[in-house]
Amino acid sequence: MPTGWRYNAQPRRVLTFKLGGKAKLPPTAPYDETVHPLDDLAVVLNPADVEAGDRLFHLGCHGCHGGMLRSSGAPGPDLRESAVALDKEAMWQVLHEGALLSKGMPRFQRFTREQVHQLYSYIRAGAREALAAGDKRQQPRNVVGMGEAGPGT
C-alpha cells in the first residue's frame, strides 16, 4: 500500500569528494512505502465514537497527518503506524498536554477526554482497515499498549 514520502524515513547519507577520485557511490537501500499499521485487537470500537473521531480528525488533524488517515509523511506521521496512538493516555498527553510540542505537534487544550477517545477510536478503525486491506504477504502486527511488536503477537 504505497503512501509516498514517509515521515522521518527518507534515506540520509553524507557524501565527501576527492578531486580526481574514482570511487562509485554505492546504491541507496530500497525505499519502503508500505504502511505498517499497529493494533490492539482486544480493543472494542464503538461505531459512534469512530464516526465522531472521523469528524474531529478532518477538522484539523488531516492537514498534517493526511486525509482519511493516509499520511504522505510530511509534516506529520501516519497515525495508523504510531505506538502513541495505541495508548489513550499517551494520546491525551500529546493532544491535550502538549507532550510533543518540542517536535512540532501542537497542543489542543480544548479537547475533552471524550474527544480524545473518539480520535483514538477513529485511528484504531483506520489501522484495522489498513490491516484488512494490506498486502497479504506482510504479517500484521498486533501490539498491546506500548509493548513489543512481532508477527501475530
Count every beta strand, where a strand is a DSSP E run of 2 or more residues. Answer: 2
CATH topology of the domain at 38-133: Cytochrome Bc1 Complex, Chain D, domain 2
Indicate the low-confidence ranges by residue numbers.
135-153
Radius of gyration from CA coordinates: 18 Å
How many alpha or pi helices?
3
Main-sheet strand order equals 1-2
CATH superfamily of the domain at 38-133: Cytochrome c-like domain
Based on the coordinates given, report the CATH architecture of the domain at 38-133: Orthogonal Bundle
Largest sheet: 2 strands, parallel
Task: Output the structural class.
Answer: mainly alpha
Distance between the amino and carboxyl termini = 22 Å
Beta-strand content estimate: under 5%
**Shape call:** elongated
Fraction in helix: 25-40%
CATH class type of the domain at 38-133: Mainly Alpha
Secondary-structure element order, N to C: EHHHE
Mean pLDDT over all positions = 82
